[in-house]
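User: Please fill in residues for this 349-position structure.
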Protein backbone atom coordinates (compact mmCIF):
# COMPACT_ATOMS: atom_id res chain seq x y z
CA UNK A 1 0.00 0.00 0.00
CA UNK A 2 1.32 3.44 -0.91
CA UNK A 3 1.99 6.22 1.58
CA UNK A 4 -0.31 9.21 1.32
CA UNK A 5 0.96 12.75 1.95
CA UNK A 6 -0.92 13.44 5.22
CA UNK A 7 0.19 12.77 8.80
CA UNK A 8 -2.58 13.23 11.34
CA UNK A 9 -3.38 12.51 14.99
CA UNK A 10 -5.84 10.22 16.77
CA UNK A 11 -8.23 10.95 19.61
CA UNK A 12 -7.20 8.87 22.62
CA UNK A 13 -5.45 5.82 24.07
CA UNK A 14 -7.18 3.45 21.67
CA UNK A 15 -8.60 3.71 18.17
CA UNK A 16 -12.24 4.68 17.70
CA UNK A 17 -14.17 3.98 14.51
CA UNK A 18 -13.54 7.44 13.07
CA UNK A 19 -9.78 6.98 13.64
CA UNK A 20 -9.91 3.65 11.79
CA UNK A 21 -11.86 5.13 8.89
CA UNK A 22 -9.34 7.98 8.55
CA UNK A 23 -6.33 5.67 8.70
CA UNK A 24 -7.81 3.66 5.82
CA UNK A 25 -8.00 6.78 3.63
CA UNK A 26 -5.44 6.59 0.79
CA UNK A 27 -4.28 10.17 1.42
CA UNK A 28 -3.05 9.24 4.91
CA UNK A 29 0.57 8.17 5.27
CA UNK A 30 1.39 8.77 8.91
CA UNK A 31 0.20 9.23 12.48
CA UNK A 32 1.69 11.55 15.09
CA UNK A 33 1.08 10.64 18.74
CA UNK A 34 0.65 13.01 21.69
CA UNK A 35 0.60 12.75 25.48
CA UNK A 36 -3.15 12.11 25.40
CA UNK A 37 -2.44 8.89 23.47
CA UNK A 38 -0.23 7.48 26.23
CA UNK A 39 -1.17 5.67 29.42
CA UNK A 40 1.57 3.08 29.88
CA UNK A 41 4.04 0.98 27.88
CA UNK A 42 1.69 -1.97 27.32
CA UNK A 43 -1.13 0.30 26.16
CA UNK A 44 1.20 2.17 23.78
CA UNK A 45 2.53 -1.05 22.24
CA UNK A 46 -1.05 -2.21 21.64
CA UNK A 47 -2.09 1.14 20.19
CA UNK A 48 0.84 1.16 17.76
CA UNK A 49 0.02 -2.39 16.67
CA UNK A 50 -3.65 -1.52 16.14
CA UNK A 51 -2.66 1.53 14.08
CA UNK A 52 -0.56 -0.70 11.87
CA UNK A 53 -3.34 -3.29 11.64
CA UNK A 54 -5.72 -0.56 10.51
CA UNK A 55 -3.55 0.43 7.56
CA UNK A 56 -0.49 -1.80 7.25
CA UNK A 57 3.14 -1.70 8.33
CA UNK A 58 3.88 0.89 5.67
CA UNK A 59 2.27 3.66 7.74
CA UNK A 60 4.73 5.99 9.52
CA UNK A 61 4.21 6.55 13.25
CA UNK A 62 5.95 9.53 14.84
CA UNK A 63 6.03 11.71 17.95
CA UNK A 64 7.60 14.94 19.22
CA UNK A 65 9.92 13.47 21.86
CA UNK A 66 12.88 15.86 21.96
CA UNK A 67 13.63 15.96 25.68
CA UNK A 68 13.13 18.72 28.21
CA UNK A 69 9.66 20.29 28.02
CA UNK A 70 8.87 18.50 24.76
CA UNK A 71 8.65 14.84 25.76
CA UNK A 72 5.25 13.28 25.11
CA UNK A 73 5.71 10.01 27.00
CA UNK A 74 6.92 10.35 30.59
CA UNK A 75 5.87 7.54 32.95
CA UNK A 76 7.99 4.45 32.22
CA UNK A 77 10.27 6.27 29.77
CA UNK A 78 13.64 7.79 30.69
CA UNK A 79 13.33 11.51 31.43
CA UNK A 80 15.51 13.36 28.91
CA UNK A 81 17.32 16.67 29.41
CA UNK A 82 16.56 19.77 27.37
CA UNK A 83 19.10 20.23 24.58
CA UNK A 84 20.11 23.57 26.10
CA UNK A 85 21.45 21.66 29.10
CA UNK A 86 23.75 19.73 26.78
CA UNK A 87 24.82 23.03 25.24
CA UNK A 88 25.80 24.30 28.69
CA UNK A 89 28.01 21.26 29.14
CA UNK A 90 29.56 21.98 25.72
CA UNK A 91 30.84 25.28 27.13
CA UNK A 92 33.00 23.37 29.62
CA UNK A 93 33.80 20.08 27.89
CA UNK A 94 32.76 19.85 24.22
CA UNK A 95 33.85 16.22 23.83
CA UNK A 96 31.76 15.05 26.79
CA UNK A 97 28.80 17.14 25.63
CA UNK A 98 28.87 15.57 22.17
CA UNK A 99 28.96 12.09 23.66
CA UNK A 100 26.08 12.97 25.98
CA UNK A 101 24.09 14.28 23.00
CA UNK A 102 24.71 11.02 21.14
CA UNK A 103 23.76 8.95 24.19
CA UNK A 104 20.56 10.92 24.86
CA UNK A 105 19.52 10.45 21.23
CA UNK A 106 20.34 6.74 21.27
CA UNK A 107 18.32 6.22 24.43
CA UNK A 108 15.37 8.29 23.19
CA UNK A 109 15.32 6.51 19.84
CA UNK A 110 15.87 3.03 21.31
CA UNK A 111 12.96 3.40 23.71
CA UNK A 112 10.62 4.69 21.01
CA UNK A 113 11.69 2.02 18.54
CA UNK A 114 11.14 -0.70 21.16
CA UNK A 115 7.44 0.19 21.38
CA UNK A 116 7.09 0.35 17.60
CA UNK A 117 7.35 4.04 16.66
CA UNK A 118 9.31 4.92 13.53
CA UNK A 119 10.79 8.28 14.46
CA UNK A 120 10.74 11.40 16.61
CA UNK A 121 10.71 14.91 15.15
CA UNK A 122 14.20 15.72 16.44
CA UNK A 123 16.68 17.33 16.77
CA UNK A 124 15.91 21.05 17.03
CA UNK A 125 18.65 22.79 15.03
CA UNK A 126 17.50 26.37 15.68
CA UNK A 127 19.93 28.78 17.29
CA UNK A 128 19.15 30.11 20.75
CA UNK A 129 19.28 33.89 20.33
CA UNK A 130 17.56 34.37 23.68
CA UNK A 131 14.51 35.89 21.95
CA UNK A 132 12.15 33.03 21.16
CA UNK A 133 10.47 31.45 24.19
CA UNK A 134 8.89 28.65 22.15
CA UNK A 135 12.42 27.54 21.15
CA UNK A 136 14.46 28.56 24.19
CA UNK A 137 16.25 25.61 25.77
CA UNK A 138 14.95 23.28 23.06
CA UNK A 139 17.94 24.64 21.09
CA UNK A 140 21.43 23.34 21.82
CA UNK A 141 23.32 26.63 21.70
CA UNK A 142 23.63 30.09 20.16
CA UNK A 143 26.82 29.26 18.25
CA UNK A 144 26.15 27.73 14.80
CA UNK A 145 29.15 25.39 14.90
CA UNK A 146 28.29 24.18 18.39
CA UNK A 147 24.72 23.50 17.25
CA UNK A 148 26.01 21.52 14.27
CA UNK A 149 28.42 19.43 16.36
CA UNK A 150 25.82 18.59 19.02
CA UNK A 151 23.06 17.97 16.46
CA UNK A 152 25.37 15.78 14.39
CA UNK A 153 26.15 13.68 17.46
CA UNK A 154 22.42 13.51 18.21
CA UNK A 155 21.67 12.28 14.68
CA UNK A 156 24.39 9.64 15.02
CA UNK A 157 22.80 8.36 18.21
CA UNK A 158 19.37 8.16 16.57
CA UNK A 159 20.85 6.32 13.59
CA UNK A 160 22.57 3.74 15.82
CA UNK A 161 19.19 3.03 17.39
CA UNK A 162 17.56 2.55 13.99
CA UNK A 163 15.82 5.91 13.70
CA UNK A 164 15.98 8.64 11.05
CA UNK A 165 16.45 12.26 12.13
CA UNK A 166 14.26 15.28 11.37
CA UNK A 167 16.11 18.59 11.76
CA UNK A 168 13.87 21.55 12.51
CA UNK A 169 12.87 24.37 11.91
CA UNK A 170 14.51 25.35 8.60
CA UNK A 171 15.93 27.92 7.92
CA UNK A 172 15.79 28.87 11.63
CA UNK A 173 13.10 29.86 14.14
CA UNK A 174 15.33 31.19 16.91
CA UNK A 175 15.61 34.82 15.82
CA UNK A 176 11.92 35.75 16.15
CA UNK A 177 10.11 36.45 19.41
CA UNK A 178 6.67 35.30 18.29
CA UNK A 179 5.41 31.72 18.71
CA UNK A 180 4.16 30.37 15.38
CA UNK A 181 1.58 28.22 17.22
CA UNK A 182 -0.36 31.37 18.09
CA UNK A 183 1.16 34.13 15.95
CA UNK A 184 2.68 34.86 12.53
CA UNK A 185 6.40 35.47 13.14
CA UNK A 186 8.31 37.71 10.75
CA UNK A 187 12.11 37.64 10.50
CA UNK A 188 13.43 40.76 8.74
CA UNK A 189 17.08 39.74 8.43
CA UNK A 190 19.00 39.63 5.16
CA UNK A 191 19.84 36.30 3.54
CA UNK A 192 23.55 36.60 4.33
CA UNK A 193 22.93 36.69 8.06
CA UNK A 194 20.51 33.75 7.94
CA UNK A 195 22.85 31.70 5.75
CA UNK A 196 25.98 32.37 7.79
CA UNK A 197 24.29 31.60 11.10
CA UNK A 198 20.98 29.71 11.11
CA UNK A 199 21.49 27.68 7.93
CA UNK A 200 25.06 26.67 8.90
CA UNK A 201 24.10 23.57 10.96
CA UNK A 202 21.43 22.53 8.45
CA UNK A 203 23.92 22.79 5.58
CA UNK A 204 26.52 20.61 7.32
CA UNK A 205 23.92 18.04 8.41
CA UNK A 206 22.67 17.82 4.83
CA UNK A 207 26.22 16.99 3.76
CA UNK A 208 26.05 14.12 6.29
CA UNK A 209 23.00 12.67 4.48
CA UNK A 210 20.31 14.04 6.81
CA UNK A 211 17.07 12.10 6.33
CA UNK A 212 14.45 14.83 6.87
CA UNK A 213 13.80 18.49 7.60
CA UNK A 214 10.82 20.43 8.94
CA UNK A 215 10.56 24.09 7.84
CA UNK A 216 9.43 26.93 10.09
CA UNK A 217 6.11 28.76 9.97
CA UNK A 218 8.14 31.98 9.85
CA UNK A 219 8.05 34.67 7.16
CA UNK A 220 11.50 35.95 6.11
CA UNK A 221 10.09 39.05 4.48
CA UNK A 222 13.29 40.30 2.83
CA UNK A 223 13.20 37.12 0.72
CA UNK A 224 9.61 35.89 0.41
CA UNK A 225 6.17 36.81 1.72
CA UNK A 226 5.19 33.21 2.48
CA UNK A 227 6.29 31.26 5.58
CA UNK A 228 9.17 28.91 4.77
CA UNK A 229 6.94 25.81 4.79
CA UNK A 230 4.78 27.28 2.01
CA UNK A 231 7.60 28.89 0.05
CA UNK A 232 8.97 27.42 -3.21
CA UNK A 233 11.87 29.83 -2.76
CA UNK A 234 12.94 28.28 0.55
CA UNK A 235 12.06 24.66 -0.19
CA UNK A 236 12.91 24.34 -3.88
CA UNK A 237 15.40 27.10 -4.66
CA UNK A 238 17.39 27.10 -1.42
CA UNK A 239 16.85 23.71 0.24
CA UNK A 240 16.65 21.45 -2.81
CA UNK A 241 18.67 23.61 -5.19
CA UNK A 242 21.43 25.46 -3.35
CA UNK A 243 21.84 23.03 -0.43
CA UNK A 244 21.20 19.89 -2.51
CA UNK A 245 18.91 18.33 0.12
CA UNK A 246 17.51 14.99 -1.05
CA UNK A 247 15.61 13.88 2.05
CA UNK A 248 12.01 14.28 3.23
CA UNK A 249 10.43 17.68 3.86
CA UNK A 250 7.69 17.52 6.51
CA UNK A 251 5.47 20.55 6.95
CA UNK A 252 4.94 21.86 10.45
CA UNK A 253 1.37 21.56 11.74
CA UNK A 254 -1.09 23.21 9.34
CA UNK A 255 -3.37 23.93 12.30
CA UNK A 256 -0.86 26.41 13.77
CA UNK A 257 -1.66 30.11 13.42
CA UNK A 258 1.60 30.65 11.56
CA UNK A 259 0.13 28.54 8.74
CA UNK A 260 -2.94 30.75 8.35
CA UNK A 261 -1.09 33.00 5.90
CA UNK A 262 -1.32 30.18 3.35
CA UNK A 263 -5.11 30.22 3.35
CA UNK A 264 -8.23 30.39 5.47
CA UNK A 265 -9.33 26.97 4.28
CA UNK A 266 -7.30 23.94 5.29
CA UNK A 267 -7.26 22.25 1.86
CA UNK A 268 -5.71 25.48 0.51
CA UNK A 269 -2.96 25.28 3.15
CA UNK A 270 -2.33 21.63 2.28
CA UNK A 271 -2.15 22.35 -1.44
CA UNK A 272 0.19 25.31 -0.86
CA UNK A 273 2.57 23.24 1.29
CA UNK A 274 2.71 20.38 -1.22
CA UNK A 275 3.15 22.70 -4.19
CA UNK A 276 5.95 24.49 -2.35
CA UNK A 277 7.83 21.20 -1.95
CA UNK A 278 6.64 19.37 1.18
CA UNK A 279 6.55 15.59 0.88
CA UNK A 280 4.26 15.06 3.87
CA UNK A 281 2.02 17.55 5.66
CA UNK A 282 0.96 17.48 9.31
CA UNK A 283 -2.50 18.42 10.57
CA UNK A 284 -3.00 18.02 14.31
CA UNK A 285 -5.66 18.65 16.96
CA UNK A 286 -8.35 19.54 14.45
CA UNK A 287 -10.30 16.52 13.20
CA UNK A 288 -12.64 18.44 10.85
CA UNK A 289 -9.59 20.01 9.18
CA UNK A 290 -7.93 16.60 8.83
CA UNK A 291 -11.01 15.20 7.14
CA UNK A 292 -11.21 18.18 4.75
CA UNK A 293 -7.56 17.82 3.83
CA UNK A 294 -7.51 14.07 3.20
CA UNK A 295 -10.67 14.31 1.09
CA UNK A 296 -9.09 17.13 -0.94
CA UNK A 297 -5.99 14.99 -1.58
CA UNK A 298 -7.77 11.78 -2.58
CA UNK A 299 -5.79 10.28 -5.45
CA UNK A 300 -2.68 12.40 -4.84
CA UNK A 301 0.39 10.24 -5.48
CA UNK A 302 3.96 11.47 -5.76
CA UNK A 303 6.36 8.57 -6.42
CA UNK A 304 9.42 10.69 -5.58
CA UNK A 305 7.98 11.67 -2.20
CA UNK A 306 7.11 8.05 -1.48
CA UNK A 307 10.69 6.99 -2.20
CA UNK A 308 11.97 9.64 0.20
CA UNK A 309 9.45 8.70 2.89
CA UNK A 310 10.55 5.07 2.75
CA UNK A 311 13.77 6.18 4.50
CA UNK A 312 11.75 7.14 7.58
CA UNK A 313 10.75 3.63 8.55
CA UNK A 314 12.37 2.47 11.77
CA UNK A 315 15.06 -0.20 11.88
CA UNK A 316 16.46 -2.56 14.57
CA UNK A 317 13.37 -4.18 16.04
CA UNK A 318 14.21 -4.66 19.72
CA UNK A 319 11.39 -5.18 22.22
CA UNK A 320 10.97 -3.08 25.37
CA UNK A 321 11.86 -6.11 27.49
CA UNK A 322 15.01 -6.82 25.46
CA UNK A 323 16.07 -3.16 25.61
CA UNK A 324 15.79 -3.05 29.40
CA UNK A 325 18.16 -6.02 29.64
CA UNK A 326 20.89 -4.29 27.63
CA UNK A 327 23.94 -3.12 29.57
CA UNK A 328 24.17 -0.04 27.34
CA UNK A 329 20.64 1.03 28.23
CA UNK A 330 21.40 0.74 31.95
CA UNK A 331 24.66 2.69 31.67
CA UNK A 332 23.31 5.45 29.44
CA UNK A 333 20.11 5.95 31.43
CA UNK A 334 22.14 6.09 34.66
CA UNK A 335 24.46 8.76 33.21
CA UNK A 336 21.54 10.84 32.01
CA UNK A 337 19.80 10.63 35.37
CA UNK A 338 23.03 11.59 37.13
CA UNK A 339 23.41 14.62 34.87
CA UNK A 340 19.82 15.71 35.46
CA UNK A 341 20.34 15.39 39.21
CA UNK A 342 23.67 17.25 39.26
CA UNK A 343 25.17 18.81 36.09
CA UNK A 344 28.49 19.29 37.93
CA UNK A 345 29.11 15.57 38.30
CA UNK A 346 31.77 13.90 36.17
CA UNK A 347 29.95 11.73 33.65
CA UNK A 348 31.04 8.15 33.05
CA UNK A 349 31.19 8.51 29.26
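Assistant: Residues filled in for all 349 positions:
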Amino acid sequence: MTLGPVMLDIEGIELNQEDKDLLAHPAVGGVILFTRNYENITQLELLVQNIRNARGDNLLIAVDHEGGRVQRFIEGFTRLPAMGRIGQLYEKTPKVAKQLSKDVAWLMASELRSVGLDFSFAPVVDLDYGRCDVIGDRAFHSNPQAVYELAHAFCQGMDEAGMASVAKHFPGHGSVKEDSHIDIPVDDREYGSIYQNDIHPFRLLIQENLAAIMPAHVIYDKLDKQPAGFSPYWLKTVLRGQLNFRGVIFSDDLNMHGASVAGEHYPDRAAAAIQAGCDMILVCNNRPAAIEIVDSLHGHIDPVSMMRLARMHGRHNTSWQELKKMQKWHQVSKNIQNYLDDPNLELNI
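For context: The chain has a mean pLDDT of 94.
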